[in-house]
């Protein structure tokens, strides 16, 4: 029976690299690319079909920052498929990043250089905005939209006789100090990206607590430091030649820190590896890191996450409450 896989944020970067690897490795696969921009999604599909002409690759329009878009997409998925084997929660944004150039160049010549490159800590802050649904955009895009999608797709994900996987693209930038249970949308902070990724780590644990008995398992990965559009967006005015000059620095750091994966193929290693594992054998409190050795060999490093059951459950309950409020508002709008 063909496996059915849905990937959010699949039209570029790590998501597209993952789709290419899945099609290359698995003959019987129904792949669905869930993307916000359908023009880019069509281009990604065409590229995949050029390499794999007989592949089954479908498109789905979905913007995880929009409640109505997520609900409509979920309805479409349930019409197309009677089950999902794997749902990759990969879509994400880091809007308007503020880059501390002085801190960056100081970090290049300090003992904290490896931590700076692998986590972005100390050099990145972001300015968030509010969506049409009155939610913080980073929270909605990176976390809540995915949570609502999972909730809507429970009928095709949960089956005690059949295991399904949720796989989150998190980050080593997920820091506990950036997250606050009293401000889960991070309205009052300057690190919404870090907060949203830490929240996804917590949510993954809670989803395992609530759904493992129904055959649904959740895991978390970190792609490492990858040169993608999001990375380049950190310094939109940074001249291209300076990125080129920095590449030898990245290669050198990778000799000591294997989180510097650099390209989307390497960054997708953990996403691809998890697809081939038995979900029930995985550690729900581990984050699976894509790693690349100094010689260019890819491998996986599981690391315990800085999370706990009590906080994960508290977040889960808050998300359920927010979901209820959002649905009520949506019904009022539709009247």
TrEMBL record:
Name the record gives this protein: Uncharacterized protein
Annotated source species: Chaenocephalus aceratus
